[in-house]
Structure formats: C-alpha cells, structure tokens
Design brief:
Distance between the termini: 24 Å
Largest sheet: 4 strands, antiparallel
Structural class: alpha+beta
Oligomer: single chain
Shape: elongated
C-alpha cells in the first residue's frame, strides 16, 4: 500500500543485442548524470541479465542488460534496462520477441524522511524513465500520485498526505487491537514524525471503518 509509479520501457521492432546493449549503456550514462545532479542516493552498474535471473521477473528473460537506482531514504529502488524472453514465456509466442522491461517503484515512504526527500525521489523516478523516451524507446507511465503527466506537485503532495493518513489510521487501529493481547505490530508509517496527527486525521474521517477493521482482526486472531 502506498503511492507507486508503474512503468514499462520497450524497443519496438527487431534490434540486435549489441545495439540494445549500447542503448542501455547510453541510458545509464545519462541516468548517472541525473543521479549526481539531483543528489540521489546511488546508481548501480550495468549488469547482464540471463535466464538464471528468472525469479522476480514478470517475463522470464533470455538476455538483456539492466541497472538499478536508489533515489533516497524510504524509497524503493527502481530497475531500468531492456530484456527479451524466449517464446515459451511470451504472452503471444507467435509474435517476434521484443526488448522490454516492466518496473515499479513505491515512493510513498520516502515521505517519512520529509517532503523534500519525497519530492526528490518521486520526480527523479519520472525523469529517469523519460530518459528512455528521449532515446527513442516506447515508454508507459502510470503514476498513482497523479503528478505525471501534468507535473502537478500540489496534487502529488495531497495524494501522498491522504495515503499517509489512511495508512496511519489503519496501522494505528491494528496496533491497538494487537496491543490488547500483548502483541506488537510493526509498520514503516510509525516512523513518520507526524504519525499522531495523521492517525487523528484518519480517525476523524473514517473512525467507524477503522473500528470495524479492528473488531474483525480481534475475531480472526483472538486479540
């Protein structure tokens, strides 16, 4: 649960592996410059993807090249690159293999380290994806924070705040239900510097819902 950017990067039409590798290296060089310019946390080297890397991939790869970027504290890392799968793993095996990567990056919990950190991470992921668009790739972006495509920062901050409050309210209700039985619940949102305020906002809006959820948890777990 939390704001996530979903994306895909693809090359339309047949391309030889050496051309794809050169494209990934170029994208990595530009991403590295963006990471340095924006003060992001880290960028990994370009790594070769093989069939041994099958676990965790939406489409098991036959070959390809990828690298990761860690935008900042609290934010998930994002993987960029291009891979292709064998025909037996493609949704439409009769079609030619294409070079593609599907990725996602949850930025919600970057807000636990402040608004500035959250914005730096979320906006950087969008711009890292768009590097590939400028290199001629086909790019799709689904931004749960509604920042993209209008670059609407106020809407992004509003969505992030709303979800932080909802998560705080839910986590707080579960914590209270567990605490009655001497158990403990852990959640990243507990580290938010304004957790109590967020929880209070959520309870004011949806207190009945959280109470119902707490009662159901008590019944299911004998809290």
């Amino acid at each position: 649960m939390g704001l996530t950017i979903h994306y895909s990067i693809a090359v339309v039409g047949p391309k030889p592996p050496e051309e794809i590798k050169a494209l990934v290296i170029t994208a990595h060089r530009r991403a590295h410059a963006l990471v340095r310019r924006r003060g992001l946390e880290a960028i990994g080297p370009v790594a070769t993807v093989t069939p041994a890397d099958r676990p965790g991939w939406r489409e098991p790869p036959q070959e390809g090249w990828c690298f990761y970027v860690n935008p900042g504290p609290g934010c998930e890392s994002a993987t960029f690159g291009l891979t292709r799968s064998t025909s037996r793993f493609r949704r439409h095996p009769e079609q030619p293999a294409r070079w593609i990567v599907h990725g996602c990056c949850k930025t919600q919990y970057a807000s636990l380290h402040g608004e500035e950190n959250f914005l730096r991470c979320h906006l950087a992921i969008i711009d890292l994806i768009r590097i590939w668009e400028r290199l001629g790739c086909s790019v799709r972006i689904k931004d749960e924070g509604d920042y993209w495509p209008k670059r609407d920062v106020p809407t992004l901050l509003r969505e992030c705040g709303f979800l932080n409050a909802a998560i705080a309210g839910f986590a707080g209700a579960m914590k209270d239900a567990a605490g009655e039985a001497g158990s403990a619940i852990q959640a990243p949102v507990f580290a938010h510097p304004q957790f109590e305020r967020l929880e209070a906002e959520a309870v004011a809006r949806h207190g009945d819902l959280f109470e119902t959820l707490s009662n159901e948890v008590r019944q299911l777990t004998d809290f």
